[in-house]
Amino acid sequence: MSSHGYFPTEAELALNGAGQTAFHERAAAATRAEFGSDVFVRAVVEVSNFCRENCTYCGMRRDNRSLARYRAQHEQIAGMLIEHRPASVTDVNIQTGEDPVAVREVVLPLIETLRRETSLGISVCLGTLPPELYAELQAAGASIFIMKFEAGDAAQYEQFQAPGTLAERLRHIRLLAENDWNVSSGFIAGLPGQTPRDLLKNLEMAGSLPLSGCSVSPFIPGEATPLAKHPTANPDWTFNCVSALRLMRPDWVIPAVSAFNLAAEDGYRRGLRAGANLVTINLTPTDQRGDYVIYKRDRFIMTEERVLTAIAAEGRTPSKTGLADFYRDKMANGTAAEKNSETAMQT
Ligand code: 5AD
User: Fold this and answer.
1) Taking the complete model, does pTM exceed 0.85, yes or no?
2) What distance in Å separates the CA atoms of residue 132 and residue 113, rounded to the nearest whole number?
């Protein structure tokens, strides 16, 4: 079990130059000690861009009338994943805007088919839903729930019109963990007006939650959003947050997100170097991808080739063990919530 004595300083989060390189190398060493050179490889399919939320940072917000809304056919997505997924992919993340209709009509049947036809681990990122739906998703075969807390300050959470309230979001995260989901959360780094102090608050929030992983998304000003005119997140802050998370929780799974490439030249590789150990290959059908616009239409699509090239260039290897299997083996001696609260209590 790793020790959890570390918490970053504001100065560490603002590092650049040689000091930053040393900080990232410390985090990379912690990643290596826990995971070796392995990087988990997951595919993402974005199966609905309908959204009932209205987050001011997100291009899929319900007020964005410029977007063609779609729901995928679950048979098409299942067929593609069963027959054409890259060999390196061990897991799939099924993602939507917050769209309970798509959960019923697309996500649940898709999970059932994948469970029957493949050994893929199944993650979902679907927003806050009625608890009965969480249970149905779990019964169908999903085991990892991605629910980001977005901003760890209640006033800012409200200001950016993130879903519901921060308290409610945290309640859902805890509820999922108590019900044996592996929960990965995350926050947006560098939202307009945020300071390094806010980053610390996000890291503190992450450390207090019963999580198996956490992401850092650099703020990208979305074209059709109220925040379009604001600057992109400081990439140094972003990658320093990745390293801080890694040093806080050596055993967490921390993704390299495609937005790293929008925030910085070679951002994906910098993220891997700073402590990330999960990559995502985008397998959303190309005719639908264009309308799944979190940031802007000009997305940086992580193809199989780009992902595998980045892994190899950093001297890492695609993990043969899938993420869901890895968590299952780790949790074999207790529930996810017990395991997770054990680590949360050590802070
Ligand atoms: N910049 C960075 N991350 C964003 N997200 C949404 N919009 C933005 C943005 N403009 C992230 C949120 C959301 C996830 C799907 O994408 O954290 O939960």
Assistant:
1) yes
2) 20
